[in-house]
Amino acid sequence: MTEAWASIVVALIGILGSVLMLFLSKLRKENREDHDYVKSALENLHDDVKEVGQKIDSHIDWHLKK
After folding, report:
1. CA atoms of 48 and 52, how far apart (whole Å)
2. Each residue of 10-34: b (16+ CB within 10 Å) or e?
């Protein structure tokens, strides 16, 4: 392999590596955004379940005292 071809191969490897890193960086950003959305949804669900649990407890107490 001549020096010219070696330079071309090295340049192609560098370009492909840069494109791959850009792609992985984009996936990481989307993954972080998805996790933030799911975390927020789970926190809201937790609050709703907590309120229902308190209502059920008070309703059961009402039955026991009646």
Report:
1. 6
2. eeeeeeeeeeeeeeeeeeeeeeeee
